Amino acid sequence: MLGSIIGDIAGSVYEFNNYRAKDFEPFFHRNAAFTDDTVCTVAIADALIHDKCPARTLKDWGERYWSNGGWGRSFALWLGSESLEPYGSYGNGAAMRVAPAGFLATSLEEAQALSVKVTEVTHNHPEGIRGAVATASAVYMARTGSGADQIREYVTDMFGYDLTRNVDEIRPGYVFNETCQRSVPEALTCVLEATSFEDAIRNAISIGGDSDTIAAIAGGIAEAMFGIPDDIANEVWTKLPLDMRQVLTRLYA
Prior knowledge:
The chain is mainly α. It has 15 helices and no strands. It has one domain: Orthogonal Bundle (ADP-ribosylglycohydrolase fold), CATH 1.10.4080. About 60% of the residues lie in helices and about 0% in strands. About 50% of the residues are buried.
């Protein structure tokens, strides 16, 4: 889960100012900060750890960090309303916040069930569910020892995503897109082609588009596959407020 947050923070300065190469320095820009992606990921972890209503927990954390901004329009309207009903979204927020389901599950089936549980409260469109379940499945499989080829084959067969392009083929024509359909396959490819956690995040940011969210999706899977270098983990830890660190500590415990 910390991997998703790292991707969000590292990608935050490039969301509307894409950098289409992997050589950006430093890894964390001086203006990098967590966004709504991190807030929602922590909310989902909180809901799963403490068996809370996911919709209510998303609203609680959203209200707590409302001024942080960055919310998608439809999600912001939902956050500000009294409704706890889903609104048919297939946005990539379904996938960027779902990594905790893959980390907490004890089986692939449970990872998928948990991902549906925390996704359908807002992103109940079939494409939103598909994106979340595919991402949580990849997290669980990587965490339990599946390699890149196994994950690629499973995700292709089960979810129908095209994972045949490599990062260099994606990068030139990739544009800002907030749907699961045009975010999850690209994020997955950035991880499955990577040689390390940092390489996965650099891949994700380098393709442009919705950089923080692509990197957040990739980051959760990359953490499960490679682990996180101590220097990167320690640096991002200092960028998080106490309430978020408490949820992370409980999740990893």
